[in-house]
Amino acid sequence: MTKEYTIEIELESDVLVGSGEGWGGVIDSDVVFDDYGLPYIPARRLKGCLREAAMEVTEAFMLCSQLVLPPVEMLFGSPGQEKSAPIMISNAYLKDYENICQWLQYIAKEYN
Fold this sequence. Notes:
mainly alpha, 3 helices, elongated
């Protein structure tokens, strides 16, 4: 049985979601944009942050109690495994992203 959840992220300070691609001395920090020029947070980055948080929680529980949590790899997978992880993460887009894209398409069509 597959369950789908929506996570809403509220930024409380400025953020720069870099692409991770190096441009040498030309560009210091390249931002990730979609085809419309709108910024987004790649799923890979989100999954890495969630995985790191899960590891910290697991370690904290192991230090202070008898509770044993399942290994983080059971949820997030591990590098090189053939089978995909049970947790699937999608890119994070702006709120009302699809509506914004429709307006950008309309504007591009009407005003070139």
